[in-house]
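This part of the workshop introduces the protein records we will be handling. A learned vocabulary of local backbone shapes supplies the integers on the structure line. Getting from the letters to the tokens is the skill we practise here. As an example, a complete record with its sequence and its structure tokens follows.
=====
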Amino acid sequence: MKKAIATVGAVIGIVLLMWLGYGLFVYSRNPSPQFSLPPSLTPPPGNVYSELVACIHNIREPGKLAALAQQTDYGTLAEKQAIVEANREVFRKVREILNKPAQVERLTYQTGDPTVEAYRQFARLYIVWATLLEQQGKFGQALDVYLDAFAFLEKILNGGNALHLTFHFMATSDLFQAIPSLIPHLSAQDAQRGARRLEQLLANEYPLDKLLEQEFRVWLTGWQRTVRGQSLRGFRLDLPKSEPERELLYLPKAPLSQAAQQYMQQWLQQAKLPYPQQQVVQYPPALQQLGRELVARDPQGIALLVARYTYTRARLRLLYTALRLETYRKTYGRYPASLKELGNSPYLIDPFSNQPFVYRSQGDRYVLYSVGPNGKDDGGQPFPEGRLRREQPGDMGLKPYLPQRPS
């Protein structure tokens, strides 16, 4: 009997030692990652970001608005008037909060938040109002409406990450497509006033390195949660159920976490450089293993964020330059021979080349374009919108090259 008890005790002891050994092994493979993240952004006093989001939710007649977006000139005068009247409260609220501080409050999407399509509906609503004013000959007011929309979407981006850049990028694409036809109708005073408003927007733009800091914050804190959740699985005898799960559980996490820290720091250094000097940071060797997309966004994904950000900066600067050119023409009766005649504003510089935009005066017309993501002058060859690969050839004119307006 004593021998049996001793045997059972020995077996139990062995099992406990195996359990403890396995638990400690898994725990040793999953130490809690400690990242040196940049300080969190401090929300400004009186932050109205939630009120901006409420404006998106409060858009009336979204179905009719979507239908108008498929029509030439966004529908008839009567149809536009009906949409504008239904959304007077949205317009009033936006004007009320545009001069108040706003910063993103949450970096991840949650059920009930506005979708990309909702932000595009906001842009279309403002296009409807602006084109209505154009038809009524109120060109200066139409410009104000477009600039209100741009100012709103800049606030939506402020303090955000890839999620908010996507909202901004998709919504502004419709505005950039619609506004160029208005510019020739503006008076010198209206064009000059519009250029000054854009100067203010561009002077206060949300920096690329801050956007990437926020993006890495989401990825790396997510990685921390993943690893912490796995560290005690061995003690719970929560065994992996598939080969990929087994590899992830048993893979040493410390080298991955160290590599992710290095990867983040290298990208943040690149983001502070002018676009032509930036290089795509590749995964460190440790991230080439299983952990890569579980730890941080892949290099091409981050390169796309950088290109999208730079694209919207280039388009806002092109618009600014076009307003300056129109001011000059209405004042002197001709377009300037070169952009140098407009002065030394930093917003006459193409962010894709860090050189002045390509400009040629052609009598009562002009050629103006950015060299686009490849940084090369392709002779004005249209840039295919939506393909923001760094090597993609083509130049970006004032009006986006879209064979068909996106729905």
In short: The chain has three domains: 1-29, 47-185, 241-407. The longest helix spans residues 299-332.
